[in-house]
Write a structure and sequence with these properties.
This protein has 371 residues and is α+β, with helices and mostly antiparallel strands. The protein has ten helices and ten strands. The strands form two sheets. It has a five-stranded antiparallel β-sheet, sandwiched between helices. A five-stranded mixed β-sheet has the order 6-7-8-10-9, covered by helices on one side. Strand 4 and strand 5 form a beta hairpin. Helix 1 runs antiparallel to helix 2, helix 2 runs antiparallel to helix 5 and helix 5 packs antiparallel against helix 6. 27% of the residues are buried. About 1% of the residues have low confidence.
Length: 371
């Protein structure tokens, strides 16, 4: 009768090893548990696990047994050449009594402790070799029984690694979903509420005769704009990229509809050029510029029609608002009616604002920004 592969004691040790490896919470803990368990099962003095990169060399090297101060003296970890690479090339286990006698041995770097006997096996996750488990310096050398135990451990380890990777992915998905929920709540509730308050304040400022109070209200509106900008930046730092791609057309249409709701003027939005892939940093600058120029026209122009155009040229973005209203004398108005705000915003972004108007000829506000 053929002798069983494992004795009852070996089976008990493997069961314990499986429990240890499978019980590790994180992937790194799993890899460390594999090394320590391999050392315990075989009596090896040193152990290591090399994770393979895309080109077959080691991208990560987890080791046990060598003191940290000696590790610092040795220097960079091995890349997987020599005997360590033999396991990768063969795709199977290696057991030798003396490392120095193997033809693939390239010796050890300075300060490395001496090592003699060697046992190494690949660890597979599904059909791919994930890495190699190395054990060295068992007194009296490694036996066939050790090889069988470590190969069984490698199978257990492959399953544990797959589970740890899946667990990490699931946690990542959960975090992303949670971040998405928070971002949506911030955008759909808080920002919209602040935005509505800002619109109300703007409308109120236009009905107040006291210029000082009206300016204070406009200043408060400006601070609300800044708060909205900060919240949006926070939201889009949170966002997963799939759902949160901002669409400038939709945001400007929503803005124009909100602003025009209380007025009789017809508001038209035009888009020219490739405006759908603008840098994210511009979104929170375009909206306040359109809001300022469009709300000025709605409040002051008495226009039948107002047209706002977003036009992208080679290296420029042009935001133009044209109305057919009463117009005004620019020299008489100076920097009032929010015109200074527009000039400042454009200047801060490296651009400029031009305002053209005359009594009875309507008004054109054009802001040019570099891309």
């Amino acid at each position: 009768m053929e002798e069983p592969l494992f004795s009852p004691g070996d089976v008990a040790r493997l069961v314990g090893a499986a429990a240890t490896v499978a019980g590790a919470a994180e992937l790194t803990d799993t890899l460390e548990a594999l090394v320590e368990t391999g050392m315990d099962l075989t009596g090896a003095k040193y152990g290591a696990l090399g994770v393979l990169g895309t080109h077959g060399f080691l991208k990560e090297f987890i080791h046990k047994g060598i003191p940290l101060d000696v590790v610092d003296q040795i220097g960079p970890p091995p890349a997987g050449h020599g005997l360590l690479g033999t396991i990768t090339r063969r795709g199977g286990g290696v057991r030798i009594p003396h490392i120095a006698d193997h033809p693939d041995s390239v010796g050890f770097p300075e300060h490395h402790p001496p090592m003699d006997s060697f046992l190494g096996v690949p660890i597979r996750v599904a059909d791919e070799v994930y890495g190699n488990l190395y054990l060295t310096d068992k007194e009296g050398g490694f036996l066939e029984e050790d090889m069988a135990l470590v190969e069984a451990l490698a199978i257990i380890g492959g399953s544990a690694i797959a589970n740890a990777r899946l667990s990490r992915r699931l946690r990542t998905v959960a975090i992303v979903e949670d971040r998405e929920r928070i971002a949506r709540d911030l955008h759909d509730a808080i920002i919209q509420d602040i935005f509505a308050v800002g619109l109300g304040l703007q409308a109120l400022a236009g009905r107040i005769d006291d210029s000082e109070i009206a300016d204070e209200i406009r200043d408060a509106t400006g601070r609300l704009d800044e708060s909205i900008t900060s919240l949006r930046r926070f939201i889009f730092d949170l966002r997963p990229p799939v759902w949160a791609q901002r669409r400038i057309r939709e945001e400007l249409i929503d803005l124009a509809d909100s602003l025009a709701d209380s007025y009789t003027s017809q508001v038209e939005l035009l888009f020219r050029g490739e405006v759908d892939n603008l840098p994210d940093r511009l979104f929170d600058e375009i909206l306040p510029i359109v809001r300022e120029s469009l709300s000025n026209a709605l409040r002051h122009a008495g226009a039948v029609k107002i047209t706002t155009t977003l036009e992208r040229r080679a290296q420029q973005l042009i935001i133009r608002t044209v109305d057919d209203g009463a117009g005004f004398d620019i020299e008489a108005v100076g920097d009032g009616m929010g015109l200074e705000n527009l000039r400042t915003r454009a200047s801060d972004l490296g651009g400029f604002a031009e305002i053209t108007s005359g009594v009875g000829t309507g008004t054109t506000v054009e802001v040019t920004l570099p891309l």
